Amino acid sequence: MAEEERERHGGATEPVTPVEHEPKWSGAAPVPPPAPKRKRWLEDESMFPPPPPPPATPPRDPTLDLPTGHAFEPDTPVDPWADADPLPAYPMDVTYPPTRQEPVSPPPPPPAPPPPPASHAPPQPPVPVPTPAPTPVKKPKSKRRPEPAGPPPGWRPPPGYVAVPVRRRRKWPWLALLSLLCCCGCPAWFGQPVYAQFPADAVVPSTIGSLTLRDDAQSKRTAEELKRQLQSTNWFSSPFAGVYVDGDGKRATVFGTTGLHFSPDSDVTAEINRVTPNYNLRDVKAVSATERGESRKCGVGTDNGAQVVVCSWVDYGSLGTGVFTRLDVDDSNARLSQLRDTIVTRRADG
Question: How far apart are CA 233 and CA 216, in angstroms?
């Protein structure tokens, strides 16, 4: 018996003395260090003291001895969800809607049986082949607006009611109008000056307003020389030239050609640069024109020691230059318009 007690206590030969102090609230109880082991077969059992008594019961929690009443919670725990059971006490049949099943394609038909051997056996009936179920065809949704529901049968308007016709909103084909404008309007806008100014003819009349054409030999030689210079630079054009004078003795020499010009702006610059060495032009600038598609430039220079104003115009059907004496730039530009409108005639005008 003593041997079993020693084995139960891990072979300790001395009793464990409990610690004489108040227990501390900790997570583990104190464990005493083990005593040195002794050889049991050399000693007598009477030398060992009896086993120590069991450890004392830990003290009771003082909070458990507090009084209870209406101000304190009862000792018996209460289930807060006891009355909140979502399922009723009586039996209930819970059914769920059927789930959607994907259509299963039918299995392929079984292969045809091999032909029977030639014998006197009766022929076997053919095996029926299952027909696959037809695939449902989805009907396309109609884009037409449904018609409004009419009045119920037997309905009559109240007395004094006057029907007012509803004016339907007109639907304009904006896309068609825009396409027509782009296809026809843009070419007409840009092509109108070309149609109005080309082709053109030039005729030098004897009088233009207060100007009179000079018919002396010197004026004729000057006009022929100006035509020859224009013919050498414009091969496929018809040149014209003339020398005019008014009642005050102011001279106006005009010369030019008729023909198609694709770029009036660049052509008038080239023309004014061509006559610049002949008249020593300076202060060349662009002036206002009388028609859309026409370009003009004027400059101040000298001719045989006299001060002159040289103005050139170019449009889609003609080119011309005027040399004016005893006039400023604005008056010279106005006289150039008079000469251009009288000498050059357009075939588009009839």
Answer: 27
Which phi-psi region, left, alpha or beta, contains residue 10 (left: φ > 0; alpha: ψ -120 to 50)?
Answer: left
Tokens 């005639």 locate to 345
For the chain, the maximum distance between any two Cα atoms, rounded to a whole number of angstroms, is: 176
Would you state the structure tokens that stand for residue 289, as one six-digit string? Answer: 């024109």
Four-CA torsion 201, 206, 208, 214, nearest 10 degrees: 120
Rounded to two decimals, what is the model's pTM? 0.51
For residue 245, give the 3-state DSSP assignment.
Answer: strand
**Helix (H/G/I), strand (E/B), else coil: 300:** strand
pLDDT, one tens digit per residue, over 54-75 is 777 777 777 777 666 555 555 5
Q: How far is 216 from 218, CA to CA, in rounded Å? A: 6
- CB atoms < 10 A from the CB of 9, how many? 16
Which H or E run contains 322? strand 318-325
Q: How many CB atoms neighbour CB 220 within 10 A?
A: 14
How crowded is residue 238: how many other Cβ atoms within 10 Å of its Cβ?
A: 16
Q: Rg of the chain over CA atoms, in angstroms?
A: 63
203 DSSP 8-state letter: -
